[in-house]
User: Fold this.
Amino acid sequence: MWCLLNTFFACVLRTFSKKTFLSLPCKDFKSDDGMKSGIVRFFVHNFEAWFWLTSLILLAFMPPESTQTTFCVWHLLGFESCLGCGLGHSISSAFHGHWITSFKFHPLGLVAIAILTIRIVSVFNQNYTFERLNKKFTHDKNL
Amino acid sequence: MTKIYELMPDIQGEEMLILQNLCRDYSEEKLRNFATIYRTRRKDPLLILVLTLVGLAGFAGIHRILLNQIGMGILYFFTGGLCLIGTIVDAVNYQQLTLQFNRRLAMEVHQLLNREV
Assistant:
């Protein structure tokens, strides 16, 4: 269920923010509403990070053994189990503190948490440093 | 004076704005140098999108490895693109993913050219 929610959220965010997508801190480009476009840009540029963050949080609050109706395409196609679903259960049970069950669901569960966390941090970090660099460039050239 | 969009007409949108911002004070020769280097090293968003969609057929994560995100690539490969969800996310987000790679590259090339002088 969480994946459906996430995908929907992503698509809505994407379509609504297309207008302000070009608002870069550029000298020649002036957006009419700077503050709002700044916030939207903050969301759009870090879209990937927000997505992983929400999915990790939702997985942390999901009961690890739950087998509700899923959005998983492999299940809908009729396969018994899929690697991704095992990963979801694995991450969930790892968050609940059941390490061995987590490993049994999918051996990559803990690694996945680590990789996703690194990715989230790196997305935020990269965007932040780039904005700062870009501002510095524009500032230097205006002098 | 040649403009950067005349040298690389296929680049559009935010990437072009970044490049214009970066190369504002470049001389003609330097601009041509920048264009050649950047163009050969740059990743095409279309290629990334196609490789992402290959993930729907079972080979997920190739685009991540191509974008120098080896960890994410391996994770995608061994989980079928995080149960296809990650593949769909990347298909929505492919422009941003490529832009992140390309602007970093632009900065690198910029530093390279400046160090040379």
